[in-house]
Design goal:
The protein is an alpha/beta fold. It has helices spanning about 10-20, 35-45, 55-60, 95-105, 120, 140-155, 170-175, 180-185, and strands at about 5, 25-30, 45-50, 70-75, 80, 85-90, 110, 135-140, 160-165. The chain is globular, with a radius of gyration of 15 Å.
């Protein structure tokens, strides 16, 4: 059992918090109340960033001391929105939110995952007609192993999890968000994930 703080209690954060609680973890879900994130992060072994990506860097940099030594699981994508509210462009082209977080929080172990799918798939990967992929990006092998185990608790089979390498590889998975608005416009808001056919 891990002590987990989920920052953000919208659809993504709420979904993850519920599923991880059902899996037996001690989960605290945090809204934007002043001081709530700092209190939760201070006692957590794992912090999940499910806050809107556009403001994540500033929000998490303010928790530098609380996040020292912690595993930070970043599931957000930092984008600007188009007129229809769907992602339009990357905020960190040539980089990624995960890389920016790791640079700003050098004593925090950042792992990027679950950002290449619509949120229902994060906790129900087996519900898709084809096997999805969950990608891992991060510089710390032990942190990635811990996150791999959490993914298993969310229903991800071992063969569906691909370790892409260091945190720099997150720029590839974050760029995949640019598929999302086009897929939604073409086929509606049905659960889907980016996967690699083998």
């Amino acid at each position: 059992m891990s002590t987990i703080a989920v920052l953000g209690n919208g659809r993504v954060g709420g979904n993850l918090a519920t599923a991880l609680t059902k899996a037996g973890h001690d989960v605290t879900s945090v809204d934007r109340a002043p001081g709530a994130a700092a209190s939760a992060a201070r006692t957590a072994q794992v912090v999940i960033n499910a806050t809107p990506g556009a403001g994540s860097l500033e929000r998490l940099t303010a928790l530098r001391e609380e996040l020292r030594g912690t595993i930070l699981v970043d599931v957000s994508n930092a984008t600007t929105d188009g007129p229809d509210g769907l992602p339009a462009d990357l905020i960190h082209p040539g980089s990624s939110l995960a890389e920016q977080l790791q640079e700003a929080l050098p004593e925090t172990r950042v792992v990027k995952t679950l950002n290449t799918m619509l949120f229902p798939v994060m906790t129900a990967p087996g519900a898709l007609a084809q096997a999805p992929d969950a990608f891992l990006s991060g510089d710390d092998a032990q942190a990635k192993q811990a996150v791999r185990e959490l993914l298993g608790d969310l229903g991800w089979r071992e063969e569906w999890i691909t370790d892409l390498g260091g945190i720099r590889t997150a720029r590839a998975t974050e760029a995949a968000i640019l598929f999302v608005p086009h897929v939604i416009r073409a086929s509606g808001f049905a659960p889907f994930a980016v996967s690699i056919a083998r």
